[in-house]
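Supplementary Note 2. Why include the ligand at all?

Several targets in our set were suspected to adopt different conformations when bound, so apo predictions alone were not considered sufficient. For every target with a known small-molecule partner we therefore ran a joint prediction. The input for pyridoxal-5'-phosphate is given below.
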Amino acid sequence: MEITENYNTIKKQLPSSVELVAVSKTHSASAIQEVYDLGQRVFGENKVQELMEKYPLLPNDIQWHLIGHLQTNKVKYIAEFIDTIQSVDSEKLLLEINKESHKHNRKIKVLLQVKIAEEESKFGLEIAEAKDLYQQYINGNFPDVEITGLMGMATFTDDEQQVRKEFSILKSLFDELSQVRALTTLSMGMSDDFPIAIDCGANSVRVGSAIFGRRDYSK
Ligand SMILES: *Cc1c(COP(=O)(O)O)cnc(C)c1O
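The joint prediction is reproduced in token form.
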């Protein structure tokens, strides 16, 4: 009941041009099914193990996005069914996804995750690295993946100007790379900052707790 209300509230706030990735990490398959039944098809998980447990329990037209740090040795477990890997943060990982994509005769979609937050964040490419990887891709490296866009996370802060500044950095990079070859997806914004992200140009947002409620990590 509450999930349904939350979902409808979020949907109302999103322009139709903005994709919603419902972030279901730590939440049950039945909670996901409830949101699916409201029409949602794109879901995000951050752990391979958890995704593999839920995947067989849910309808097969769900487009699963991996949004958390991915170890290269785990790509093989999700290569057959993952729709988009949003968290590509190294060349090594991109190479591995390319290899597995080829093996499964598909073209896995990926986003380059870029470090934009001022706070120390463990994962994400530097801007120069993202540019370099994209140029390599344009030059024909990684032929079995499709780089469709960029993903980033802003600093966790109440300072809206700071958040705006960081999202704008990613939007600038998105525009710059799109001049070389058009990108489609700019994924930024979570439960607390998605309206700012949309204002700064995001066309895909990753919303978890505002739909599913607080995550309980003690379980
Ligand atoms: C958990 C997570 C989200 C969703 O966060 P909420 O604050 O619950 O909306 C979005 N993106 C990433 C990368 C996450 O790990």
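The longest strand covers residues 145-153. The chain has a mean pLDDT of 96. Comparable summaries for the other entries are listed in the accompanying table.
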